[in-house]
Please model this.
Amino acid sequence: MIVVFWGTHVFTRLVGFSGDRSICSNCELGYKKRVIKESHWVHFEYIPLFPIKSKYHIVCPVCGNRRTVEIIDMVYDFVPLKYDPHPDIEIYAKHILAKKPDGWFETDYSYELCARDLRTDNVICVGTNCTKKNVKNFKKNLGYKKIEIIEV
Model:
């Protein structure tokens, strides 16, 4: 018996920033928005074969509020990615060890997702009672390479 796996997979990556600082309509904080490219690929046996579509999103780096744009819309204020992923914000997750579950099949909701403004040194709580999967999805959707997890 042969089992064949095929389907689609989404790859996200940070391609740059969108112009000057602007106020987010969701969290009301002013930062440069991230430009994320989302590529949908057809895969066969977990090997990507060819892309079928691509989308560009302008995303708030703190709360993740996003809007889909065409590449033509962002030509005038697009700033390509440099070496620093975001000079004003540091995203990290706190793992609170005192709230860990006791049983084998219980889910660990003891993560808090935080953002530190490096200009003013303010800490913004983005999400509480998160799982590790929520932290990974946030990392993937915003195009971060790594989110540091701090054990508390």
